[in-house]
Amino acid sequence: MVKENDIKLFLLIGRRIKELRKSKGYSSQETFAYDAEIPRALYGKYEKGSNLTVASLFRIIKFHGITFEDFFSKGFDELFE
Fold first, then answer.
1. What is the CATH number of domain 4-80?
2. pTM of the full predicted structure?
3. CB 32 within 8 A of CB 24
4. Whole-angstrom Cα distance, residue 35 to residue 37?
5. Distance (Å, rounded) from C-alpha 58 to C-alpha 68?
């Protein structure tokens, strides 16, 4: 059973992934997914808050040239409110 905080976390991760994609100049999920070598349909689900593996998140973070710390440093404060 998925807990409410888990759902919130997945949605925040999806929002952050989308923000990074757009900041990199990608208006299209499809183009980004292709360049990052992630199946397009799967990547679209990630942005919508689907649960993803650590390996998939690492691939996205690595593509953006940031660390896990950088990734989680913005937009996750509301989990602890």
1. 1.10.260.40
2. 0.89
3. yes
4. 5
5. 8
